[in-house]
Amino acid sequence: MTGFEFDAELWLYPGKGGWHFVTLPQDIARQIRVTAEPKTRGWGSEPVIARTGKTQWTTSIFPDRASGSFLLPVKAEVRRLEKLAAGETIRIHLILGG
Q1: What is the CA radius of gyration of the chain?
Q2: Considering its fold, how many domains does the chain have in total?
Q3: What is the pTM (predicted TM-score) of this model?
Q4: CATH number, domain at 60?
């Protein structure tokens, strides 16, 4: 499994539902495009295991045309456990193939 570590800002999607995301750095997005399995999942998503602080969760990253990168959703439970809010820079450990 391929792993990555990076810092990125947690941000709130302004639309209905208000999901929180982290946009992956461009260099990591490029590496993922090269190393990821062929796209067989919906919306070009890639399964991952993510961790911030002491909290780990299984999710998917999604390609984002606006940024040219991938978006990592950060669940409410993760934000609560780690006391995270939009606008904060957080450290993410990401493993492809979750």
Answers
A1: 13
A2: 1
A3: 0.89
A4: 2.40.30.100
